[in-house]
Amino acid sequence: MIPALREINEVQALYLQFLETLKRRGFHGDASPSYASRTVLSTDNSIYQVLPQAVVYPRDIHDLQLLMELAECEEFHKVVLSPRGGGTGTNGQSLTDGIVVDISKHMNRILEINVEEAWVRVQTGVVKDQLNAALKPHGLFFAPELSTSNRATIGGMINTDASGQGSCLYGKTRDHVLELQTVLMGGELWHSHAIDDELLGEITAQESRAASVHTLVDGIERDKRDLIAAKFPKLNRCLTGYDLAHIRDREKDGRFNLNNILCGSEGTLGFIAEAKLNLLKIPKCAALVNVNYDHFQDALKDATDLMKAGPTSIETVDSKVLQLAMDDIVWESVSEFFPQDERPVKGVNLVEYTADSEEELDAALAEFTSRVDSVIGQAGKSFGYTIARGHAQVNKIWGMRKRAVGLLGNAKGEQRPIAFVEDCAVPPENLADFIAEFRAALDDAGFAYGMFGHVDAGVLHVRPAIDMKDPEQAKQVRIITEKVVDLAKKYNGLLWGEHGKGVRSEFAPEFFGELYPELQKVKAAFDPRNQLNPGKIATPNAASGLLKIDEVATRGENDRQIPVQVWEGYSEGVYCNGNGACFNWNPDDAMCPSYKGTRNRIHSPKGRSSLIREWLRLLSAQSIDPETEARKSREKSFLLGLPGRFKNSLAKARGEYDFSHEVNESMQACLACKSCAGQCPIKVDVPTFRAKFLELYYGRYLRPLKDYFVGGLEFMMPYLARAPQIYNWPLKLKPIRWVMERGLGLVDSPSISATRLDKAMRELGVPYASRASLRAMGPAQRAKAVVIVQDAFTSYFDADVVADTLRLLKLLDFNPLVAPFRANGKPLHVHGFLRQFANTAARNSAMLNSLAESGVPLVGIDPSMTMTYRAEYQKLLGDKAPQVQLLQEWLSEHTEHLATNKNRLQSGSFTLLPHCTEQSNAAGSSRQWQQVFSALGMQLNTQAAGCCGMAGTYGHEMANRETSRTIFQQSWAPKLSGDTSAILATGYSCRCQSKRFADTELRHPLQALLAQIEDSGFTVSNH
Ligand SMILES: Cc1cc2nc3c(=O)[nH]c(=O)nc-3n(C[C@H](O)[C@H](O)[C@H](O)COP(=O)(O)OP(=O)(O)OC[C@H]3O[C@@H](n4cnc5c(N)ncnc54)[C@H](O)[C@@H]3O)c2cc1C
Ligand code: SF4
Ligand code: SF4
């Protein structure tokens, strides 16, 4: 049995007092000093891990003002605050050992869109893609781009002065900020925008923090103009943070603009609460030319020439990134543009053109391609290209490019690409030479790396693969950084070209030289006691120091406390690199419903991965090996362990602390939808390590009754289904429903189907499959045969779908048989009954494998149950796991045969709402369904959709009901508000949830096809 984990790092008394006072003074937001929240927000995407004292989630400006007012009080002068948005910084920007102020949870509303004047006002917790989705119907967009656009916030973008693809045309975030509302230390709210000298004079005459800031900054601009001009480089990616060079834009109107000091200030000067942003018109037309090279270096060198043709942007990726994309779900969407013929592609320039008319675009493309054609095949030039046209196609390729950093993290082994020198900027003409030397340095040190980036702006992302758990390798962070700093200097560039300074601020004093004290004065004017995100960009005085790249605690230092065998035993969880792709804002994306439904980062794949690492570390500190404990608990009799579990549960009920309770809370909120396993670039697979955790947790504590009920349901179903009324009738009674809810914690339990599958099979003449019957088939019969693998959900709760599938297959001249029902075991796995799952899987596999020996394909109907065979079964049984195809996988192999039936179906047009597990883990699913429908003369469109919120039994658990409803409302509900007759869903859960929350009965795709064929007068009886 695992021990209780009580030895955690306690919150300091000062911070507890601060939180209490905050509450007393009327803070509306939430505050959490829980160890779980602190652990989850102790990392970003950098190599660092700094445990905060607490996390607070302000609800409005008033909350931010309270925080700053209180921090100004003498008793709290030692309290430190660090604002945080999406937490995607790569250099520890939002990490602190004080209080994390997470602005993203509540302050994420778009306040006003002014289409005529092309601006928008937002709270700064709004995510960049969320903003652009709201602007799209108005034909407008917020132009600064970044790879993390689906999770990075406007506040984070402003504070790192973010930019990315397209920056040569659109500039940086700063270029699009019109006005800011900033809460300053002490609680003053300051509204900044470009002002003339008259207004500046009025401001400086006042007595306030803002007034002294204006006086100081104006003075620096006047007194140090020449020094500033000499120090700030004239690069597209000029410096971020305290941008003294742009206090006044003397080439334009020369007005004073404090926003240019605030942009890029990394939360060191104030909390930016709201922003008014400039918008641009979405170009009507777009195209992307994918230009291929034999060598990456050729691609880099040629980019300078290609820029002369005036594209909107040029990005480069190397063969490593391309190869990783090929192994990822993203490849399905872009493979047509990267044909894999004989000649290996070692580098690609992605060259974008945008225009307001097709003619204009055609002309630009013609000029560009003729330029490329004229040198094609010459040494150092490209050997070919493909063209993607239209925003939809172009965005798919940008989507692949945006995943590149994450994909790089999916390297095998312990040396993983990490961020610390990944965003150097040099003049574009120096880039190829700079990179050649950079590569040589990494090659000499023996480190692998992948490369991609914005060649047009002279920025290339490089992440050397280092095992930070190894102290010797960790030392390389300084060695390589210093080498790169020198190299950047040699090529007139910068170490911090794009992702801000963070912990790398250490190099600022040397870079700025005699100008650095001016930066310190700016910091001191805003934050005299160094309470705001200290140690970054500049300190207010000589007494307080900047952070140093090798003096801040790293994640590697924590991770190396976990023994190798424990680390390897939880490999599906521990490699999360914090890139934050699982915080995807888009409600129509399957990743991650429990985060979307709660907006609590504890309930995300990253959150769960962080918690499991800390849990393993705390266990390791007590010399506990979880694998050994799991083995022991499987061997122990259930009854013998009962008294111990009872005693521990009593202690839990008395409120005794155990960190495992906090981990459990996070795991319980997971839907086990497996979107993380498919979509996380690192393939973090929460359901797998969650099951291992639950097995151990419930080796120490009593399980809720519902777990036994849910885990055992598959085994009970064949018996219950014999007399469905005995199960269904009581469910209609209020007292029974009350007992189900209060006693078992289950709500809205579905009824057993009125249709009995075995009866329907008899009527259709469909036999059960057996080894003997399959063997006895002649070749012609076998060629058309298929064995339908049952699952408890469709066979017993949605038997019409199975019967209709069999009916359709018969009408389409297939020869369907049905495998005898055996429990699949997925509910057991989900709840961590791993021993029972192993036994169930072994029994079921033996039966299915014996059927598969005949060569007749095995096909499952419910996506989630079917995919258990290739996921959990595969992990357990390896090659011995039965091969069970999804319906669309099998049918799409028979499109020729299907096409022979085309004339027998009435034509029709349908829309598929994809199942989350299917779209995340079987990338070709939608395409395959479309092939099937098209072969039968039907039209099938796919509408992007997130998770429905049901996921097996998750939505039926009382504790999850409201989150389940929230998740449904976010993506599915709006799609079911009109005529739903043509909307189809493959998942049993999705159909069940639509019925429950939208009172809408959706059909399975095969039921729609069946109706089309039966409407034409074909039935099994007349067939
Ligand atoms: C895979 C990957 C790819 C990336 N690609 C790019 C890229 O293409 N271009 C690019 O520019 N960056 C890129 N980044 C870096 C990062 O995404 C950006 O810096 C982004 O702008 C950070 O936004 P965030 O909301 O995650 O901010 P956070 O990381 O939470 O915070 C960033 C900084 O802003 C401060 N801050 C946040 N909100 C506020 C607020 N409201 N008020 C005051 N201070 C605040 C924080 O204190 C911190 O110092 C990438 C990062 C990753 C992991
Ligand atoms: S779980 Fe995956 S997607 Fe989420 S932060 Fe970790 S690595 Fe990135
Ligand atoms: S299984 Fe689904 S709900 Fe659970 S962490 Fe993964 S994506 Fe989130």
Describe it for me?
With 1023 residues, this protein is of the alpha/beta class. Helices cover 45% and strands 12% of the residues. It is built from 49 helices and 25 strands. The strands form six sheets. It has a seven-stranded antiparallel beta sheet with strand order 15-12-14-13-17-18-16, sandwiched between helices. It has a five-stranded antiparallel beta sheet with strand order 5-6-10-8-9. It has a four-stranded mixed beta sheet with strand order 1-2-4-3. A hairpin with a 4-residue loop joins strand 5 (110-114) and strand 6 (119-123). The longest helix is centred in the last third of the chain and has 19 residues, at 834-852. The relative contact order is 0.08. The chain binds flavin-adenine dinucleotide and iron/sulfur cluster (2 copies).
